[in-house]
Amino acid sequence: MRKTSDLIWQDAQHQVLFEILDLIGQPDSGSAVVLQLQQYAETHFTLEEQYMEMLSYPGIDAHRRAHDEFREEIATLPCADDFDVAFRQVVSTYLTEWLKRHVFGIDKELESFILESSFK
């Protein structure tokens, strides 16, 4: 029997997202880090959405809406070069908490569904 931690690609990508969010909170981070977050999040979300489509995942609509919410949040960030230290921390903390709730909530449901399928 597989454990949920056996879905390595998803866990590894989540870890990268958390690392990028940590970088945003650093005093010397800039627009390049926000761009990196936008690009990596899009890559990760696209892969998850492809899996959901291949598997005819019943929760695809809600999951895609959650991804779209995160996409919208990071698309509205102002130029990170203008962030002060306090704002960097707020952005980093807010997005990290959002991602934690997503990963340990809706993503765990998807993970279980994927592990039960032949598309690991």
TrEMBL record:
User: Is this entry keyworded Metal-binding?
Assistant: yes
GO MF annotation list: metal ion binding; oxygen carrier activity
Q: Which UniProt keywords apply?
A: Iron, Metal-binding, Oxygen transport, Transport
In terms of domain of life, where is this protein from? Bacteria
PROSITE patterns, per the entry: HEMERYTHRINS
Transport is among the record's keywords = yes
Q: Which CDD domains match?
A: Hemerythrin (cd12107)
SUPFAM superfamilies noted in UniProt: Hemerythrin-like (SSF47188)
Hemerythrin-like domain boundaries: 11-110
Q: Write out the similarity annotation.
A: Belongs to the hemerythrin family.
| Protein's recorded name | Hemerythrin-like domain-containing protein
Q: State the organism named in the record.
A: Pseudohalioglobus lutimaris
